[in-house]
Write a structure and sequence with these properties.
alpha+beta, Trna Endonuclease, Chain: A, domain 1, three-stranded antiparallel sheet, 7 strands, globular, four-stranded mixed sheet
């Protein structure tokens, strides 16, 4: 396995959280304000990015329900989406936008398949969204 070299502030914060150098609360504040890469199904690729406003995001079926696949950088998704034809492109959006537009009721897998990542179960996603509304 190759060494994880952070490509942006979100990745630096995620690595620091996994190493116990920052609190989960500090990381979630960073995540809420960060941009993430959301792989979406494409019929017609244009430069690798989704042009349809009715994007179909990549959701993974797990024993705990649906998990939305998100990545801290578009390059982190390349090898993972090879197993999901049609999901080679996507959107770079604010994490907060995802919860505002897609709602809750699903989990989130941040950097699935990577050594540095995070899985949030559906109830944790709902809790995070509820805390931000206060």
């Amino acid at each position: 396995m190759s060494e994880f070299i952070p490509k942006n502030d979100l990745e630096r914060q995620l690595l620091a959280a996994q190493n116990g150098e920052i609190s989960p609360e500090t990381f979630f504040q960073t995540l809420w304000e960060a941009e993430v890469f959301l792989p979406v199904y494409e019929r017609h690729q244009i430069g690798g990015f989704q042009s349809d406003l009715r994007a179909k995001p990549l959701k993974l079926e797990t024993e705990n329900g649906e998990m939305l696949a998100l990545f801290t950088h578009p390059g982190r998704a390349r090898s993972f989406v090879q197993n999901f034809p049609g999901y080679e492109g996507g959107l770079v959006v604010a994490f907060s936008w995802i919860l505002e537009k897609l709602g809750v009721g699903f989990g989130i897998s941040l950097n699935p398949g990577e050594a540095v990542g995070l899985d949030l179960q559906p109830q944790a996603v709902a809790q995070l969204a509820a805390q931000r509304k206060k």
